[in-house]
Amino acid sequence: MRYTKLLIPTVKETPADAVVVSHRLMLRAGFIRKLAAGIYTYLPLAQRTFTKVANIVREEMNRAGAQELLMPAVAPAELWQESGRWDQYGPELLRFKDRKGGDFIIGPTHEEVITALVRDEVKSYKQLPLNLYQIQTKFRDEVRPRFGLMRGREFTMKDAYSFHVDNADAHREYDNMYAAYCRIFARCGLRFRAVEADTGSIGGNRSHEFQVLADSGEDAIVFTVDDKGRPSYGANVELAPIARPERAPETPGQPACVVETPHKKTIDDVAKFLGLAHDRVLKAVLFLVDNNAVMAVCRGDRDVNEIKLKKALGAKQVRLLTDDEARRKGLVPGYAGPAALDAPEVTVVVDIGVQGLAGLVCGANKEGEHRVQVAEGRDFAVAIWGDLTTAQKGDRCGKNGDVYDAARGIEVGHVFFLGTKYSSAMKATFQGEDKVERLCVMGCYGIGVTRTAAAAIEQNHDDDGIRWPAPIAPFHVSLVALGNEAETMDLASKMEGAWEAQGIEVLFDDRDERPGVKFKDHDLIGCPVRVAVGGKSLKEGVVEVKLRTDTKEQTKKVPVAEAVAFVTGLVSGLLADAKRAADEAESRH
RNA sequence: CGGGGUGUAGCUCAGCUUGGUAGAGCGCUUGGUUCGGGACCAAGAGGUCGUAGGUUCGAAUCCUGUCACCCCGACCA
Asked: CA A15 → C1' B61, Å?
């Protein structure tokens, strides 16, 4: 395709409101333009990349036995009232009225619509299992859209929903989707990790996130690897289980006593004031857990994690206690501690990391005072131990005992075992072989198509621009004509035609621009292979071939006669690598 | 939702404190010279200064409302 025929508005200057790399580069390289906060037009280059991602998703979903359909983007409020999410979802759900005054929503996700469909159409166990998916525009009215396509309000998502006769079959499909997702992200040419994740408001009891590894990722994950360096376990830090620390209990020293610590309320203040390390100061965080006051205690260098706290207490709701509420329960905000605590209504939960520690400092439960030389066991008894803190690199994994490594990731896919949450709310039942009416058991599986493309850029770029993985690049080859002499243009045209005949996509830069301008633009756009034709090298009878990941010095000079075949081989090799990676990823996970 | 900030040419921004009728660079158009990593010279086109109202002889500039957009935070004591 000829550059002069395409709308590729590249810009030199960095747009002021782009703070992350993918957003900046998509704007600069002419992929997207903003229409409103979190809402973007996908220009031709972006549309090509999104189509490629979507097609990979489509092929792998079909391969895994799922069927594509397309639901309406707009849905009537009644469906959402039926599932209960009309009230639960909050302002992220975009609601509006039609001309008759009826309430409608623009779908942020489609559990209701699909469940209603299956409820109406599926009556017998003979019609199950079903896995139905769509690739569609979603709208979530994010409180704070940011980072371009990473966290937009409107975005393209593949969402799949499966229906089963029992838990076992739903789990089988979950594993099937997990494998398909491994193949999808490997085929996109991305480095990623599947990690255990919180089920959040979607519910259910089994969930994995697929995280594209990138330092700019919003999510923190930890993982362990086996002796061959293959991932053996991974989880989002907010739920990664931590094993009890392996160390001998410390010997308690002098008896505990109270010291004055006026206006020293934070861990940092107290540690500095008393000349101690943060891990010697106990952090006591006050929560309201299912209407009970709870003091969660951990080392001062760690953070109490609400999701873990909720799990540890088997609770439904967790929030922080306000200072006033804490005082009414007999607690002293800023000076709370587990030792010498006189507050019978308060449940104390202590993180296992505190076990066997001595020489500690904690709040004395009196304004302006802390208790020092505190020893766990001697100075406070623990009724409930729990794994309460957010996992970090260096912690030992609670599943296999290995030491965690940490990474940052961008969540591009998520698989959930839903169970009967929606089928029971919306009465999606079928009749079994034994004539008994049962609820469908469901799973749901999402992939952010536009976010995957953005994540690919976060993971693959340099100072000059994007470095697209070949399978999702807008074009395979950037063909740069140096100068516009007839000989150069003829040769370039012939090469373009030869490649396109073999299904290789070429962005032929036929603009009347200086070479420097063209090189800069192609570096920005980031197609994996660049071919330069004309000028000095053509006089030597060669064209110059360079991978986007190569340096200038690594440019290969290929005789004109061999150029077409050489580049065809190069591109085929890049694409084949990704397919091979898909097979490997599937077998490894 | 809380706090902060910004709206001036297609883009990045200056001008606002101290009111006097709008600027630079990039981009764009035309002509010329150039031509292997974002060239140079010359001549141009392009703005109801977000918007509504107010103060004033006079408002991009001061005041009020409003809209849009951006950043930080929204469990870390």
From this structure: 26
Over range A200-208, report the average pLDDT: 75
A30 CB neighbours strand B below 7 A: no
User: Any idea where the domains of chain A sit in the sequence?
Assistant: 3-241+405-459, 257-386, 475-580
- Report, as an integer, the average pLDDT of A575-584: 95
| Residue A341 CA distance to nucleotide B76 C1' (Å) | 22
ipTM: 0.93
**Under CATH, domain A257-386 is a member of which superfamily?**
YbaK/aminoacyl-tRNA synthetase-associated domain (3.90.960.10)
Prediction pTM value: 0.94
Task: Please report, for residues A309, A349, A513, the alpha-carbon distance to residue A384 in angstroms, rounded to integers and kept in the order given.
Answer: 11, 5, 72
Which A residues between 413 and 472 have a beta carbon under 7 A from any strand B atom?
Answer: 464
Residue A381: predicted pLDDT? 86
Instruction: Tell me the CATH number for domain A475-580.
Output: 3.40.50.800
- Cβ atoms within 10 Å, residue A126: 11
Q: How far apart are CA A401 and CA A352, in angstroms?
A: 15
Protein-to-nucleotide distance from the CA of A228 to the C1' of B21, whole angstroms: 75
Q: A3-241+405-459 is classed in which CATH architecture?
A: 2-Layer Sandwich (3.30)
Q: Are A456 and A469 spatial neighbours (Cβ–Cβ below 8 Å)?
A: yes
Model confidence over A517-528: pLDDT tens digits?
999 999 999 999
